Amino acid sequence: MQGHMLAAEDMTNFGTDPWWLIGLKAVFCFAFLMGTVLISIVFERKVLGWMQRRIGPNRHGPWGLLQSLADGVKLMLKEDIIVKGADKVVYVLAPIIGTIPAFMAIAVIPFGPPGNEVSIFGTRTAMQLTDLPVAVLYILATSSIAAYGVVLAGWSSKSTYPLLGGVRATAQIISYEVAMGLSFAAVFLYSGSMSTSAIVDSQEDRWFAILLPVSFLIYLVSMVGEAHRAPFDMPESEGDLVGGFNTEYSSIKFALFMLTEYVHMVTVSALAVTLFLGGWRAPAPISTYWEGANHGWWPMLWFVLKLCMLLFAFIWLRATLPRVRYDQFMKLGWKVLIPVAMVWLMLVAGVRAMRNEDYSFADIIYWVGGAGIALLLISFLVDIFRERGEKAAEEREKQAEPPGFDPMAGGYPVPPLPGQTLPPTPRRRPRGEPQLVGTAAESGSAAASGEPGESNAGSTSQGRGADGA
Question: Which stretches are transmembrane (predicted)?
Answer without folding.
Answer: 20-43, 89-112, 132-155, 176-200, 206-225, 262-280, 300-320, 332-352, 364-385
